[in-house]
Structure formats: structure tokens, C-alpha cells
Write a structure and sequence with these properties.
By secondary structure, the chain is an all-alpha fold. It is 73% helix and 0% strand. InterPro entries: Bax_inhibitor_1-related, GHITM.
Amino acid sequence: MLLARLAHLVSGRSARLLCKAPLSCSQGLWKSAQQAPKCRFSGMPFQALKPKRGLLQPQLRRNYTEEHGDRNRSHLEHRSKAPTLKERMMGPPTENAYSMGKGAAAGAALMGIVALCYYGLGLANQPSIYDHSYMWPQYVRDRIHATYAYFGASCAVTAAAATAVFQSEPLLNLIMRSGWLATLVTMGLVMGTGALTQALDYEPGIGMKQLAWALHCGVMGAVVAPMCFMGGPVLVRALLYTSGIVGALSTVAACAPSDRFLHMGGPLAIGLGIIFASSLANMWLPPTTAIGAGLASMSLYGGLILFSGFLLYDTQRIVKAAESYPEHGYVRYDPINHALAIYMDALNIFIRIAIILASGDQRKKK
């Protein structure tokens, strides 16, 4: 049928060439072509050249089926080669794994600058802590001065302890020992000394409260001693940046109304739980995987934003407590406990800034 339609479309010479050409479709079709008489274009026996049903059609149908099956197989192979969600999460991280965290930190820094300009210029309708400070009695001033004196002493004791442990090889090897037992012992010492310090009652002078405070700061210095491997220039820059952040945020808290940041306690506690969970998850999911890099970015940059918010909250909480406690009441104002709050905020900010600076220097060297 196909050859008959083709003969009606071509010229006479082409039809004669087609009639004389050897047909190799099948043996039966070649014999029928040999037995047919010489043809002319007008009376050419096209029935002799007509292929029998069942010779070419099954072949065409089989080819179509095979091509369709090949396409299905190639499509399935392509789908099977595509990485699954688990493979993507456990695969190597991309170059922009920390880009979202960097953007969030940059946005928080911009908000801090805007808040500093807004409250520093006195654009708020309510009076600030700085305005209230002119009416403070002397005991309120003494409480705030004692709190920040203990804060500075806490930083000095921590730095001295970190330097001493770093210079002692046995102590440094003990601190850097890996494993579940070493991690649990370290966490137990940090949490135990901190809880002991806050549980004791404050008395002026040198007593059990002050000794427990010094022990807690020494333990924190021993824990951060391995950071000395980052090098002096990195730690000095991290200290300068931390001092700038703490000073700027303290200024924002002092220039803002006295209760502006005291309502942030609930959201900050939720954020602390998220950051703590992401830090624990990094023990099983290292930053060499995509999900591990995301958790590390959350713990690093999210923790930087979180503890900056805690610094605003704790600064105003110190002022509120110093104003609220009576001068000769049964419960004393505790400057050590309040100093430890901003001390932990500043220490966490310092650790994260040092890690960011160290990783940036490593990328520049590569």
C-alpha cells in the first residue's frame, strides 16, 4: 500500500527505476517481482509489488514498542539517578551554606544601628533609663557599679585561667580529650559551679559566694582555653569586636525606655532552646554534610543574634532589679548573679565572633 501510493506521486522514470530495483523485503516478495511481466507505467502490475499483510506491519509495530520501552527505561534510569532528599541532606554542603546566617546577622546588625540612632537621639516618647538615672539614689548607683565591676573581673579571671591552662600541656590534653565521658564531665562542671554560685547568698566582702564565683569563671576559662590555637591576632580582633558590640548594645539598652526589652524573655528562652538543640545535633551531624552545615550556621549566627538580644534583656533587668530592691530589705540585691548573666552573654558573643574570624582567615588562605 505504501509503494502504490509512492508510485502515484513520482514521475514515470522514477516508477520504472523503482520497478527494476531489486526488492529485498522478503523472499516471497522477491519471487512475485521476478514472476511479474515487464511493466509499463500505464499498466504496471502494482499488485505484484504490494507487500503482503503481516510482513512489514508487525516489524513496524515491534520497533515502535521497543522505542517506547527504551524511552520508559531511560526515563526511569534518569529518575533513579536523581539524588534523594536523604542524599541531598547528607551530601557535601554548598558554598552558600552559611549565606542565610550571614544575612540574618547583617540584618540584626543593621537593626541595632537603627535602634542606637533612634534611642540615642531621644526620639522615643517615653523617658529612657539614662533620664531616670538623674533621680537614682546612691545605693542604686552602687549596685550597678558593683555589678559591672564583677562583670569585668569575671572576664579577667576567665582570660587568666584560659592562658594558664593553655600553657600547661597536661591540663590542655585533659580539656581537649574527646568522648562522651569528657563531654559530660565538662558540662557537669560548668553547670554545677554556675548553679552553686547562684544558689549561695550574697554577702559583701569575700565569702563562699565569691569563691564559688571565681571557681566558675576559672572553669569557663579552662573550657575556652583551646581557642588559643586560633592565634593571638584573631582573638584580639574578636575581643575588640565583642567590646564594640557589648558597648553598643548596652548603650541601646540605657537609652531605651526602662521596660522596652523586658518583654523579650519568652521569645529569647524559645530561641535558646533551638540553639542548644542545634548545637547538640552537631555532635552527630558534622558540618561536612549539608544538614550539618545548616545546623552549624544556625548555632553560629543564630546564637550571635540570640545572645545579643539576651544582652539587651539582661542589661535592663539589672537596672530594674537595682531600682526595685529596697535598701535595707531582707533579700539583698545580688550583683554577682546579675553580672554572670551579662558575662555569659558576652562570652558567647566572643566565642562566635572568634570562630567566624578564624573561618574567614582559613578561606582567605585557601
